[in-house]
């Protein structure tokens, strides 16, 4: 598999759209197009292998499933993971002759995505730093009362930042990086220590993402029970993700109904106590 300049340019365009809130807002840009799960489909469509793109996207999404950016602090840039890591992972998997449905393909994709995600952090902070200059221009326009200039500050000038730190890096890394990845095929054979280490590390990376997610969700020991039910169902019944998601939806509905019943019972108890106190006050009078 090779990546042409046109395909690299399309990947750079989607990397820019994924990081620019003005293009449809953060919900469509950063939290939809920027996610590896969606980026895998987009990369698959651009590079002509939808199945391999989705496999790489799903594998990388597991690693960053609990990624948050509190106060703008970014440990990894999923925009770079989606539109630099996934294309390069697709090229590497194809060059090594690995089947898209094998576990080795997913492990290699996770390793590639983690490497690029760390590099992408530099691009993220570069974009944020350059945007400070446009913010200064915006404040000056407000002080001068030139509010129409804010449209240029909000919608025009940020394109410069994203062109320099999103489009160009994605274009260059996808085009030139694909050739480098292909060249590694002869330097790093599949049975070598380097590739075996890469696959081993990639297989362990989803544990990090799931552990971070558990740290955010689990408040008491009993919260682990619903979590382990999914693993039990998948291991014992061989259920896929769709079937497990449907069963989890049933559990979520049951928990919701139980919580609502508790709230109604508590509200009735409070109302009964209030009514009893009113009756006692009337009797005292």
From TrEMBL:
It is found in: Cell membrane. It comes from Streptococcus pluranimalium. GO terms for cellular component: plasma membrane. Keywords: Cell membrane, Membrane, Phosphotransferase system, Sugar transport, Transmembrane, Transmembrane helix, Transport. It comes from the Bacteria. One of its GO terms (biological process) is phosphoenolpyruvate-dependent sugar phosphotransferase system. It is a multi-pass membrane protein. The chain crosses the membrane at residues 80-100, 112-137, 157-178, 198-218, 224-256. This is PTS sorbose transporter subunit IIC. Pfam families: EII-Sor (PF03609).
